[in-house]
Design goal:
Elements: E1 9-12, E2 17-18, E3 22-25, E4 28-31, E5 36-40, E6 43-47, H1 50-53, E7 60-68, E8 72-79, E9 93-97, E10 118-127, E11 132-136, E12 143-146, E13 157-159, E14 162-164, E15 171-172
Parallel strand pairs: 2-6, 9-11
Antiparallel strand pairs: 1-4, 3-4, 5-6, 7-8, 7-10, 8-9, 10-11, 10-12, 13-14, 14-15
Bound molecules: zinc ion (ZN).
Zinc ion is lined by residues 149, 151-152, 154, 165, 167-168, 170.
Length: 186
């Protein structure tokens, strides 16, 4: 992805018109942000890259846990596009740090999420330059909303504060969302 840098000169006022995401300095049109440059009818605009357009602090996302260590989990995320009301698929990965998984001390993330789990999370930081998205699950409605049995892959059922497999009887723990099995982004 070819990104403009904030302050980068994109052209002159003689050649182009100033659009969103740009500003004028000494008759030069400059970029306001790290983003994608576009020219339409002589109008110069700079947009956030598509993969980050709908992601900013406070947005709720679903994630599928792809990797877990004691300190960090990686989830592939699906942001909701509120304008068009659908869930565009992305290949974006967000990181969940052990300090953001729930209130109180957590010894290891491996006790809270497992590979294949679906989580509901909130975006707490987007750094376009580094390509990093950070998420948190430390609210009652956030956390694991769908989990599978480690023994037989059946979907686990929530019973009080644990998860139980109705097929083989296996019991497991997670950072369980109040919205377990509710796949709506609210
Ligand atoms: Zn099972």
């Amino acid at each position: 992805m070819d990104l403009t840098k904030p302050g980068e000169e994109l052209g002159t006022e003689e050649e182009f018109l100033k659009g969103t995401g740009t500003y004028l300095e000494n008759e030069k049109i400059c970029s306001l942000l790290l983003g994608e440059k576009k020219i339409e009818d002589r109008k110069m605009t700079v947009d956030r890259p598509y993969r980050y357009r709908n992601l900013h602090r406070g947005v709720l996302v679903f994630g599928r846990i792809e990797k877990v260590s004691d300190q960090m989990a990686l989830a592939s995320i699906i942001p909701i596009d509120q304008k068009i009301g659908r869930y565009p698929k992305t290949n974006d990965y967000a990181s969940l740090h052990v300090s953001n998984v729930k209130q109180g001390f957590v010894d290891s993330l491996k006790n809270e999420v497992k590979i294949g789990d679906i989580i509901k999370a909130i975006v707490i930081n987007v750094d376009i330059r580094k390509g990093q998205i950070e998420i948190a699950t430390d609210k009652p409605n956030l956390g694991v909303v769908k989990a599978f049995c480690s023994k037989c892959r059946n979907i686990l059922k929530k019973e009080d504060n644990t998860l139980v497999c109705e097929q083989c009887g296996f019991k497991d723990n997670r950072v369980i969302s109040n919205d377990y099995r509710n796949l709506a982004l609210k």
